[in-house]
Amino acid sequence: MSATRFPADLAALAPLRDLVKQRADAAGLSTSRGYRLMLAVDEVATNIVLHGYQENGLEGHLDVSVEVTEDNELVVCLEDDAVAFDPRSLEGPDAEDLSIPLEERDEGGLGIMLAMDGVDRFDYERVGERNRNTFAVRLKE
Amino acid sequence: MKVTATQEGSVTIVAIEGKIDTDTCDDVEAALLAHINKGAKRLVIDLADVTYVSSAGLRAVLIVGKKIKSLQGKMAFCTLRPVIWDVFEASGFTSILTVCETRDGALAFCQG
């Protein structure tokens, strides 16, 4: 599986999204599910760039690979060398939080919720000195 | 990303074009707040030409929405593409904000 390397920089997020979208379209994923997959990868990648690299004064890369598995899943694998961080450890808003009226509504926390909610499966593992985030969506039989 | 404003009576119609992501959210927020600071209290935000909104954009929407609310103003979004509507819905925005299918619907809400 070959990976595409992007600098860990906010300016790299648009081309990273384009890559995911292109591969999702090629795999036959619907527009709406392709969008949610692209959004999920963007949200996690944004976190890695801002909190994994920049906040720690680090520079590095994001390595992205996209493949269709034998189980007919489209799998995006996002790897980085920043500090260890499992996005699942962030507590996002629940259904009750989402219905809080505008004036009292917390402004943050939506990104990881949208990411987790937008794919069929999300996995995180620390592999050696690297973080590996895996996003999977089922393709139609 | 591009922001264009037109005035329709007491309502300011702001059409946004492009992507509202980590890179552009501050500009979108600043452009909308600038209209509010100049006295706009009734805002229609037309998203017909917005192709992408991430959580950074949603955060800007909440900040602007709170500002309008604190001024007892009115704000309505309109003409969202289906993928954008989906993200607004998943974030609870379709129940805490006014989101209309047409620009006329949004205009009528803000004029009321």
UniProtKB/TrEMBL annotation, chain A:
Keywords: Kinase, Serine/threonine-protein kinase, Transferase. Residues 6-131 form the Histidine kinase/HSP90-like ATPase domain. One of its GO terms (molecular function) is protein serine/threonine kinase activity. It comes from the Bacteria. Pfam families: HATPase_c_2. CDD domains: HATPase_RsbW-like. InterPro entries: Anti-sigma-factor_SerPK, HATPase_C_sf, HATPase_dom. PANTHER family: ANTI-SIGMA-F FACTOR RSBW-RELATED, SLR1861 PROTEIN. This is Histidine kinase. It comes from Pararhodospirillum oryzae.
TrEMBL record, chain B:
Residues 1-110 form the STAS domain. Gene3D superfamilies: STAS domain. GO terms for molecular function: anti-sigma factor antagonist activity. PROSITE patterns: STAS. SUPFAM superfamilies: SpoIIaa-like. Pfam families: STAS (PF01740). Transmembrane segments: none annotated. InterPro entries: Anti-sigma_ant, STAS_dom, STAS_dom_sf. Belongs to the anti-sigma-factor antagonist family. NCBIfam families: ant_ant_sig. This is Anti-sigma factor antagonist.
